[in-house]
Write a sequence for this structure.
């Protein structure tokens, strides 16, 4: 992500901060400010603007200005920008680049945004196994890849990845040591079509500064640097948060997202869950007589179904997150289920004791019994549903993160109404 | 996090994977396996075990074995282990280390786990400004800091941090270039007592391979590497997920957490929210007559309050996450509030149209009107509460992440019952 030449650190304000500041300014001011920067700084700041702003500015630039900007950008940032432009504008933009840079950009653009290929860069350090440490350092001085990509020197055999050597080891080794001797001969790598989240989690799991990306035949095609991996992981995590609350994944930044986009991403589950809630409504209709006879039962309804939903949301969220970080696997389900039973039983008893005095106060001894017994069953059921749903979804190859709090709540509501009034019928009626 | 000498990459299975595999084995087998490894590999694998397992194994080791292990560990991993031991065991452990390593460890242990000092390492590269590029490389060869820490050479003046030079620039520079000429004279850094999340977000924001950590007087005391920052950020994010569903932050891994711990972290909010739900119960009691007269109103109660809570949870979660990543600030509130009003109005109208036919079917025209009107108001109110709560909490210096779905739901429940039956009274009674 650094400019091709010159150091970001020359400047008093970091490119990131300038980009954030520009993001809050008026569009015309931004255009002027960007145009006034020296070209390397301009590329560094521009690459850090939000996608929406990049597109707006690019469309307002002259063809020459855009070409000048492109020539100063890193290949992965260039590819990102090109990918955002309309087909015609993209073709013109690429045509204006020098052939080598255009070739890099086109290789990168070919990959879908959500894949390893979509977050890699073609700016990396790679040599053959017989290169010496001294030759490697000379090569690095000539080619000058970006800072993060330089941290691992990749070793190739006829273009195929066969090893990786930390830059540290190249520096520490005698001048005549060969890369083939220094290298890890089984370097962790990822396929170019692999999910970007898988790639990002590899980087995190193995503390990699750089993750090489290969084609099916083993040919090296790019690398994912730790900072780009972290950025991808943060985006995936934000999507998980959104799913937790039944918002469909939003690709824009929240500040930039428009009213229409937010509406579409939120209305789907809100409407779907209405139909889930019909079950609880039907249950209440079925027990109409009981409600009319013991109307105080209704006072506790929100309390009971909320508690059940909350307990379920707790379980579900803990599991979904643990599964996403790879901490928990499907094979853990039985052991964790037994533990959840114990925890839920404890929670259920506690909640029953909390709510019993309220039941006593508002409706008398028998109502207290009904409410307490229901609370205990519902907390237990809600927790078990909440814990199991992510595993079930995963077993059927669905995204476990769909097991959101609201979904679990809706399921336990329908069941909860049945349980509540059945217990009430048994005790009171 | 790498061993002091020898490369992790010598081994067919990465230390991380071996650690994960051991974590699922029987304790005795684990002890045997660990003891059978060559010492550097042993240290690398041990450091990656869960804290619970590290403590159990350390307590079962002989004093000599533990000392041997400690001598091979990186200073930050050593400090982490020492911090986990009981006071007496820690004293013995530290006493058995050689003085230099003990001093490093003690400096690190002094810092609380949730601070920058708690995730830094003392293994870094630092020289004075008049050192040349050649001298720097020689110094790096002698001192051989860990891979990640080597990426930035820190420049000191009498122990105080005055600059930072990427290793890349040291390599690219002529042999006689001085660090003072190459350096960024305003390097991003963090105070040793600063929150670890703040430090981790600095690393993410500026794509830093290494973040220097300083005392109040500017003296350099350690660095945070990008991988340790990523790990800290993942832990903080997991806590945010837990707060989203009203679980108090759990410091253990989910697989290791015991029944008692899970119970304590979940029961607090479950019980607290019961008292929040008393308001909805009281509201229902107040409108007892209405319920008895128009019992079909009760059929829609779960549906209405769930939808309100869901809409609120959506808003709240979007805001909490955006505030955590620094994308949204308190000053954005007004603009985002207006946008939320528009989105919520759209959602409210849609939901009202979805639910009107149901109201018609189950209760007739007037009930349909009541239900639809209530749905619209509740979705609007729920969204506004959900969006505002994180900002309000932040304004009062509380953690915005406390604005969980369940909390927002409980608040909108109480309001919702009042709104529902008030509208019903106006239309029907």
């Amino acid at each position: 992500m650094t400019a091709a030449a010159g150091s970001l650190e020359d400047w008093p304000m970091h490119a990131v901060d300038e980009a954030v500041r520009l993001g809050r300014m008026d569009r015309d001011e931004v255009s002027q400010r960007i145009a006034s920067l020296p070209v390397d700084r301009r590329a560094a700041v521009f690459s850090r603007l939000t996608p929406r702003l990049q597109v707006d500015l690019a469309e307002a630039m002259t063809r020459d200005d855009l070409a000048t900007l492109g020539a100063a950008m890193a290949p992965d940032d260039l590819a990102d920008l090109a990918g955002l432009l309309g087909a015609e504008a993209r073709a013109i933009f690429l045509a204006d680049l020098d052939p080598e840079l255009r070739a890099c950009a086109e290789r990168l653009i070919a990959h879908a945004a959500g894949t390893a290929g979509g977050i890699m860069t073609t700016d990396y350090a790679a040599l053959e196994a017989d290169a010496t440490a001294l030759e490697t350092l000379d090569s690095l001085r000539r080619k000058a890849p970006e800072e993060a990509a330089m941290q691992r020197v990749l070793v190739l055999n006829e273009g195929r990845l066969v090893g990786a050597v930390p830059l540290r080891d190249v520096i520490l080794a005698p001048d005549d040591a060969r890369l083939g001797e220094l290298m890890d001969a089984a370097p962790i790598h990822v396929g170019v079509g692999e999910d970007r989240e898988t790639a990002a989690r590899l980087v995190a799991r193995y503390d990699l500064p750089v993750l090489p990306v290969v084609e099916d035949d083993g040919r090296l095609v790019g690398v994912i640097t730790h900072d780009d991996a972290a950025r991808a992981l943060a985006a995936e995590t934000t999507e998980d948060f959104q799913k937790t609350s039944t918002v469909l994944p939003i690709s824009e930044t929240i500040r930039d997202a428009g009213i229409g986009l937010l509406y579409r991403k939120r209305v789907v589950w809100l409407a779907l869950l209405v139909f889930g809630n019909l079950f609880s409504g039907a249950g209440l209709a079925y027990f109409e007589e009981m409600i009319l006879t013991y109307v105080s039962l209704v006072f506790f309804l929100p309390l009971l179904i909320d508690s059940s939903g909350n307990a379920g949301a707790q379980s579900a969220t803990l599991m979904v997150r643990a599964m996403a970080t790879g901490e928990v696997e499907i094979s853990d389900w039985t052991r964790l289920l037994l533990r959840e039973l114990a925890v839920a039983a404890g929670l259920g008893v506690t909640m029953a004791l909390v709510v019993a005095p309220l039941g006593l106060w508002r409706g008398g001894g028998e109502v207290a019994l009904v409410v307490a017994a229901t609370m205990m069953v519902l907390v237990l059921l809600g927790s078990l549903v909440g814990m199991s749903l992510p595993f079930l979804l995963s077993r059927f190859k669905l995204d476990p993160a769909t097991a959101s709090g609201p979904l679990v709540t809706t399921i336990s509501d329908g069941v909860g109404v049945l349980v509540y009034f059945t217990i009430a019928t048994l005790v009171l009626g």
Summary: DSSP finds 21 helices and six strands in chain B. Chain B has a mean pLDDT of 91. The beta strands of chain B are 126-128, 152-157, 160-166, 190-191, 210-214, 220-225.
